[in-house]
Amino acid sequence: MHHNSDHFQRIGEKCEFISEIKNLFRKIKYLEESDKKNKPGLAPATGLRHVRRELKDSEIRYRRLFESAMDGVLILNAVTGNIVDVNPYLTELLSYSHDELLGKKLWEIGSFKDVASSKTAFKKLQKKGYVRYEDLPLETKNGKKIDVEFVSNVYLADDEKVIQCNIRNITEHKRAELKVLESQKALRMLMVRLQETQELEQKKLSSELHDEIGQALTSIKIDLAIITKSLPKDCSEGILGRLNEIDSIIDNILMQIHEMALHLYPHMLDELGLIPTLRWYTKMFTKRLNIELELKSTGFRGRMDSVSETILYRVCQEALTNIAKHAQAKKIVIKVCRRKSVLELSILDDGIGFNVSKTEKLQYPKHGIGLLGIRERILSIQGNFKIESAPDRGTRLYVTVPWRKREHVQN
Ligand SMILES: Nc1ncnc2c1ncn2[C@@H]1O[C@H](COP(=O)(O)OP(=O)(O)OP(=O)(O)O)[C@@H](O)[C@H]1O
Ligand SMILES: [Mg+2]
Description:
Blueprint: H1 5-12, H2 14-38, H3 46-68, E1 72-77, E2 83-86, H4 88-94, H5 98-101, H6 110-113, H7 118-128, E3 130-139, E4 145-157, E5 160-169, H8 171-230, H9 237-264, H10 268-271, H11 274-289, E6 292-298, H12 306-327, E7 331-339, E8 342-349, H13 356-361, H14 370-380, E9 384-389, E10 395-402
Parallel strand pairs: 6-7
Antiparallel strand pairs: 1-2, 1-5, 3-4, 4-5, 7-8, 8-10, 9-10
Helix pairs in contact: 2-3, 8-9, 8-14, 11-12, 12-14
The protein binds adenosine-5'-triphosphate and magnesium ion.
Adenosine-5'-triphosphate (ATP) binds near residues 349, 359 and 370.
């Protein structure tokens, strides 16, 4: 972007140039008059010449700044509102010629006509001496919409009130900002979609493992039992031993499949709901980790819709996994509480904690995506997600989601 705030500020200093020039004029007048009085008919004194040169330099400096500025500058007569001067950048920006603008009032120009408040703003400016718009929509002569930042000041130049307006084109800047916001939104949606797809896949795989492979293995087991029973009495111990071994291998595989299926998606979530599933999960978790855990549920009646239930279950799963991975905690308290139309879930641990804002600034893979993922999922069901933690202070994860009743039992 071509403009920077330094530049903008420098334009602002132009008013000083103007008063400088006006002062020089005053000096000249004074010198000329005293010249006439004292030495009529003589050449101007050296002092006068010096002041004239100063004036010329000052004018050149001012003019150059005015003309090369990469921001629009507009000078108005503070009493009438007539445009006294306008720099090339602004005529180009608005597609008006210098002559089309000169002598007009601000609100007579198409660009400012839309701003119904132009007149009011002018009144306010006359009264307060300062107005600023961070984002003012304008239209150029050929109908192009642009956005500008508009700052104007009133100042006194040789007893005459002048208004200087600095106008910065922020159209590109705004467009870029909008693009960033849009792509952020798209990314967040993508993240939620990805998690939804993953959830569906896991659910499907879990069912297949449990129902199909599990069923097939069970029928092998049954067949194996039939074969074992129907073997002749004098069958060798070796064969019997082998058959028993196969049976226990199948048992082992069944157990593993059962665990895998549960890990992918616990179908009891659909059948029994959130609290029983959490009871089962936390029991398994504490057995594995040898950690104290309390699960309190209050006011929880009925069933939530299955999307919310699944997300809340995943939140607990991620929180507990995080505790196991990072916290070195001794005790965990999970509270699930329904307050009318809101469900609150909090997970507290007494572990080592962490600096939340510092961790959030880290980027993947230094920072995981567990918390990020659940935050987005919670937001996708209009919930709130908060994490409070500090080194040596433990961690508390706090989630609220609107209570959405389950319409029918979805499987
Ligand atoms: N209960 C906790 N106690 C201490 N630190 C935690 C706790 N939960 C999260 N953290 C810190 O926050 C970081 C981010 O957690 P997050 O779940 O997003 O990522 P991760 O667990 O590192 O990786 P991922 O979840 O992607 O496998 C962790 O790396 C850890 O430093
Ligand atoms: Mg994690």
